[in-house]
User: Which sequence fits this backbone?
């Protein structure tokens, strides 16, 4: 029905406000309760990276939905790619020593 550029642009523009809102709520609940410094130069960088990760995970989810033949397969593939590939190899499995 629509060109891919129009669909992609509206999809991204529609998601920007709630990604920033939810990233801000998560940052406010997580950063200060964890006892991390409230200094603007440190917490601002953490906030910016948290917002970027919100966009990254949403973009990966949209890419998985795009390559999937149906929504059932996408719902099974999304946790595998995000959970197994991104979270496990982000330093969690690195030995402590």
Assistant:
């Amino acid at each position: 029905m629509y060109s891919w550029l129009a669909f992609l642009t509206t999809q991204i523009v529609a998601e920007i406000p709630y990604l920033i809102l939810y990233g801000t709520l998560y940052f406010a609940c997580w950063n200060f309760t964890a006892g991390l410094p409230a200094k603007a130069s440190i917490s601002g960088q953490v906030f910016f990276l948290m917002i970027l990760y919100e966009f990254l995970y949403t973009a990966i989810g949209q890419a998985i939905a795009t390559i999937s033949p149906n929504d059932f397969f996408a719902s099974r593939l999304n946790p595998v790619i995000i959970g197994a590939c991104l979270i496990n190899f982000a330093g969690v499995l690195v030995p402590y020593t």
In short: Residues 16-92 form one domain.
